[in-house]
Write a structure and sequence with these properties.
By secondary structure, this protein is an alpha+beta fold. The protein contains 16 helices and eight strands.
Length: about 325
Amino acid sequence: MEKLDSKQKIIIEPTVPFDFNSTFHKPDHFPSGDNEWEQGIRWQTMLWKDKRLGLKFIDKENTNIAVKVFSSSELSQDFIKSLKKELMYRYCLDLDLKEFNEEFENHSLLGPIIEKWKGMRPIHSGSLYEYTVIMIMLQNCTVKRSVNMLQRLFENYGVKLSYDDKELWSYWEPEDLEKVTGEELRELKLGYRAKFLDRISKQFAQGKVDEFKLREKPREEQKEALLKLYGIGPASVGNLLWEVFRNYSKIEHISPWERKIYSKLFFDREPDNPASEESLLSYFEEEFGKYQMLAVHYIWEDLWWKRKNKDIAWLEELINL
DNA sequence: CATCAGGGCCCTG
DNA sequence: CAGGGCCCTGAT
């Protein structure tokens, strides 16, 4: 365990409008040992430029965010500057929602949801590598199993950080897994995902993927690069393009479990008789144009917030906890 | 107890 | 380009 005693503060002014809680808490994300949320506060560990950080985001009435940065050693001004820039990117704090809001404020389904969550942003708290790990852990298993696998990885390769009366796990670096054998990972009950994680960590450690260069590339090039990662296919790549590379213009793939939920949400069709992938895709295209993924995100998150407050029977059957 | 599908992907034919 | 196999887990 690493104690983080050094402390600094960053003030961030997000673009207007902004909503703290729906941005910093995503009820559809499975619980993970690297973060915690309560009304107006999110704790999040972060690995940035070889330093392990404990972050505490504090809401200032949806206009500012105070970020307390805990670390084990003093941080330079340059470091803080680069960190602030990265936080802006990961939490989408410079996103301009004006056009989106105006275009859909009168939409029968989306309009009221935009009104309710005005200023919500998509986020990804981790790096591309970290997010890729999550994608692998999600594949072909229940949420409970995903949670367990990630937790075992934290306990074996991560570092627990202690700050602000919290103890949270921080990720390992791809290099840390380079020397770990596939068999060792199998013992953590990752199943066949062990091979994926093993090979992907090597690909990252050897510099075969450059997250920051990829951010500048067009969607098709990003997609091509991501599909070279061993174990990343059409379902995972869609999520990575959206969540890590902020590509909200297009949806290309809908997995069967999502298809059932979307069918109910958009067409009011029962899960045992879901709409086809094609009909959903063309509906999204026609209805939401270049904001497809962002629009669906708003509707999707709204559903999960509703579920957080009250059981939704039809949904429970479909989410495979 | 056995069987099976599951928040996919790889590989083969 | 369709379909089998893959690790494990928990539901039936």
